[in-house]
Amino acid sequence: MSAIVPEIRSADLLRYTVIGSRRPSVYFWAVALTGGGLGFTLAGLSSYLHRNLLPFSDPASLVFIPQGIAMLFYGVLGSLAGLYQWLSLYWNLGGGYNEFDRRTQKITLVRQGFPGKNREVRLEYDFADVQSLRVELREGLNPRRAIYLRVKGRGDIPLTGVGQPPPLTEIENQAAEIARFLNVSLEGI
């Protein structure tokens, strides 16, 4: 699954949807952490209550101190981590869009954050302030493939989302399309 999905392409408007936390890996970890946390919590409670709360095991025979309390502690931590994953999926943290509009000569970058006053992060730049587009390609154990917008006085602003790096051809094509649309140079390829 790509980090950037083209949504609108026209002569005057280019818009990409950026996938935030709603990636398959986050769904996997949300399910795994919730299930594991619930299992450990029930095992710890079973040892405390001396009553089997798990149908596939007999944790009631565990001694509460130290085994049961450790299971309960790790179960609560796992459940809280699972809850965080589910909330990040619900809130779609990091999701948003990149919009390039020739009519207004504006670039709008929108990302979703945590609930509150500043839930939506919105950055706007003029076409005239864009110096170039930079592509970062790093292979190896922790690969990185990202597109950055180089803006005067602002440095490099990432346009790609987090997660699994998109295929090399896809990142090159997207960077070339954006650079042509903005009429700026492309660095790093």
Kindly describe this structure.
The chain is an alpha+beta fold. It folds into 2 domains: 113 residues, PH-domain like (Roll); 66 residues, no CATH class. It is 37% helix and 30% strand. The chain contains 3 helices and 9 strands. A 5-stranded antiparallel beta sheet has the order 1-2-3-4-5, covered by helices on one side. It has a 4-stranded mixed beta sheet with strand order 8-7-6-9, covered by helices on one side. Strand 6 and strand 7 form a beta hairpin. Helix 1 packs antiparallel against helix 2. The model has no long low-confidence stretch (mean pLDDT 91).
Summarize the structure.
With 189 residues, the chain is α+β, with helices and mostly antiparallel strands. Helices cover 37% and strands 30% of the residues.
Assign an overall shape.
elongated
The secondary-structure element order is EEHHEEEEEEHE
Number of helices, counting only DSSP H or I runs of 4 residues or more: 3
Q: Kindly provide the radius of gyration, computed on alpha-carbon positions and rounded to a whole number of angstroms.
A: 23 Å
Average residue pLDDT: 91
Function: Seems to be required for the assembly of the photosystem I complex.
Transmembrane segments: 25-45, 62-82
Protein name: Photosystem I assembly protein Ycf4
GO cellular component, one term: plasma membrane-derived thylakoid membrane
